[in-house]
Design brief:
By secondary structure, this protein is α/β, with parallel strands linked by helices. It is built from ten helices and twelve strands. The strands form three sheets. A six-stranded mixed beta sheet has the order 6-7-8-3-9-10, sandwiched between helices. Strands 2-1-4-5 form a four-stranded antiparallel beta sheet. Strands 11-12 form a two-stranded antiparallel ribbon. A hairpin with a 2-residue loop joins β9 and β10 (211-217).
Length: 290
């Protein structure tokens, strides 16, 4: 599969000696949704800001569609849309004109059809002629996302796009990401709402202390590192596990377990199963890396 973003040996050390990134290697494929997860201060935003040309790297190489982000800055930046964490102080301009202006900054010709499509997809159509300073915080967050999509980028970075917003916006954002996937846009998502990555991501990377500690397909990660638990509500209290079950191991199927329980004379009135979430696996990985 073709890599859209290729990161090799990327490092970043800030003034004062803090090393935010340590020899990061990462390949992101065309058309995938990649979930980049990590605790606060892990290096997620620094990594995104370097790829987007906002922060200069200390070492290493970043290519976007084979173009170096430093030597070919204008070309690579025009391929990328970014939804930052922070809500900027906005202006007296209207929502629609802000999107038009943002599109023009990337040298794209006017295209109100595309602008209107973005406004409608993010439930901003009714606010298109409203000054941004008059919008609520949630609506301003929608405008940030719309601005990032205004120039039709091939790659979209969403850095905590739904932090502190309502459920409706979060669902709208998920719907937009799914539409972008169908259109072949590559999406890199960082989020504290790990259920977002669990629902949307094709692959997941976990970063901690400036280092990538794992990159894996989401389904494989959950299958290989997840845990499944079966909880039985017994009718009668047991002081010890019957001898017939003493050697039971995790390789046996639930059907075998039910049969052995019945043969051991253990009665139960209910059972529950639970499966590890991506958040459970993320917490385990980060703790092991401490």
């Amino acid at each position: 599969m073709r890599s859209v973003i290729s990161i090799k040996g990327l490092t970043k050390t800030y003034a004062g000696g803090f090393q935010a990134l340590k020899d990061v290697d990462l390949e992101i494929n065309k058309g995938e949704i990649f979930g980049l997860l990590g605790p606060n201060g892990a290096g997620k935003t620094t990594l995104i800001n370097i790829v987007c040309g906002i922060v200069n790297p200390s070492g290493g190489e970043v290519l976007v569609y084979g173009n170096d982000i430093i030597k070919d800055f204008r070309k690579t930046r025009a391929m990328i849309g970014l939804v930052p964490q922070e809500l900027p102080t906005e202006t007296f301009e209207t929502v629609r004109n802000t999107l038009r202006f943002s599109r023009g900054l990337f040298g794209k010709p006017p295209n109100d059809e595309h602008i209107d499509k973005v406004l409608k997809s993010l439930s901003l159509w009714d606010k298109r002629d409203t000054m941004i300073m008059m919008l609520s915080g949630g609506m301003k967050r929608r405008v940030l996302i719309a601005k990032a999509l205004s120039h039709e980028p091939d790659v979209l970075f969403l850095d905590e796009p739904t932090a502190g917003v309502d459920v409706e916006l979060r669902q709208d954002m998920w719907n937009v990401v799914e539409l972008l996937r169908k259109e072949g846009v590559t999406v890199i998502l960082t989020t504290h709402y790990i259920e977002e990555a669990e629902q949307l991501a094709d692959r997941v990377g976990v970063i901690n202390n400036g280092e990538i500690i794992i990159v894996e397909e989401k389904d494989k990660l959950m299958r290989d590192m997840g845990k499944k638990q079966l909880l039985l509500h017994l009718l009668d209290e047991l002081e010890e596990v019957p001898a017939a079950l003493s050697n039971y191991d995790l390789q046996l199927s639930d059907e075998d377990l039910m049969k052995d329980l019945r043969e051991a004379g253990i009665r139960f009135n209910d059972l529950q199963t639970s499966q590890s979430s991506l958040e459970d696996i993320f917490v385990d990985l980060v703790h092991k890396d401490q």
